[in-house]
Amino acid sequence: MIRLCGVSIYQGSFALRDVCFEVPAQQYAVLMGKTGSGKTTLLEAICGLRPVAAGSIYLMGRDVTRLRPAARGVGYVPQDAGLFPRMTVREHLGFALAIRRWPRQKIAQRVAELAELLGIGHLLERRPQGLSGGEIQRVALGRALALRPGVLVLDEPLSALDEETRGEMYDLLRSVRAESRATVLHVTHNRSEARQLADIVLEIQDGQVHHVAPGK
Amino acid sequence: MMRWGDSSGVPHAAAPPAGRPLAESGLFDALFVGRLSSLLALYLAIVVGLLAALASFTSASDVIRAAQSPEIRYAFWLSLGTCTLSTIFSLWVAVPAGYVLSRFGFRGKNVVDTLLDIPIVLPPLVIGLALLILFQTPLGKAIERIHPVTFAVPAVVLAQFCVACAFAVRTMRVTFDQIPVRPEQVALTLGCSRRQAFWLVAFPEARRGLITAATLAWARSLGEFGPVLVFAGATRMRTEVLPTTVFLELSVGNIEAAAAVSLMMVIAAGIVLLLTRMFGLRGTGLI
Description:
A: alpha/beta; 27% strand; B: MetI-like fold
């Protein structure tokens, strides 16, 4: 579950004021808003990459407002995926596990599971250079899901993809959501993504977030 | 819009208003590029001219004789050693400094930026003088009691370091500025500490910038003359480095020897440049 209470973020002349919303556990929320409305800023704050000036953030019932990103248990897929240029896909999927010094066998097992779920088994030894847009998003998703986070945060994951790939990704995101049982916050400016995927639709406007009826 | 006298009945676009004709032939583009290239060629000609002048004033036998002189041999190895040391120290400071300057904002950052540029802008002689005065202060004297610095070899390294480091920091800052910050942020959400994010994600990307910074620092150290002269002195077989040799030979009117040593420095610098280019580009698929 994701809950923000009275969250205010200031960045230069831009501000989000007194933002309050809740995404119940295991629901798929789509956050919509115009470019520059603060969607990425909000996601960064939820991940702990940006400090909040006021308010509290609850993830899975815990107050994480003061916690470092590493301690929040969020899976983050940024815009442009942010893959590590010098690591193989296998190293991406196992990154979070290697940091925690999991035994090699367990890492291999989890990497295999993720590769199967995301259909990237044939890419494991490849590096990010030369991967297609869809493949890059799958790797980024796999990297974020490795530790089974309770909260998954996606920043415009489908905006760089063509129609056909996007259709494949809808199915993929649905199966990922079902398998991981995470609470998902998916940011986009594309209404059809909201229609296809969302249980809840939120809109960010003038520094405020409010619920919108899905399918609107 | 119909044109008078046009019997085809097909409308034509109106003729463009009178004025500058469009550059229709590739000639204009070729002239433009030609003009730019000629400036490049001019500077290249100056550089080649300088090298040729040096080479012409000396001969192979002069260079060999210089290479056999024990004073110049000492100066050569001292130069090599001190430049390498000051480069290592410069990188040791520049990598973290460049990273902090690139990734973090803090109050007074502008002041820090300006201070870091000062060794680049200040005349090198002034840096030497400042070092000399610094080591006359109580703090400096305390350090000298532990190990002599002024007019000794450590002074050479310190003088070189003060200037070379400024260039290295600038280079590393630009390097980290060009490395996107998102992957490091993702690494943090995946469980990395800042330290792990730096070593595992940011630093591997900075390799080429590191090589550039090292080359710059080394080359700068090799040529550093003013501060070395003032702070370390020009004692033969003690603190004489190759630029000092050139100065000393010039001051006794021995221009052939000065030119010979200068050519030695050009060759040494050229080899270093070549090596670092090779190592810097290997693994990137470019060679």
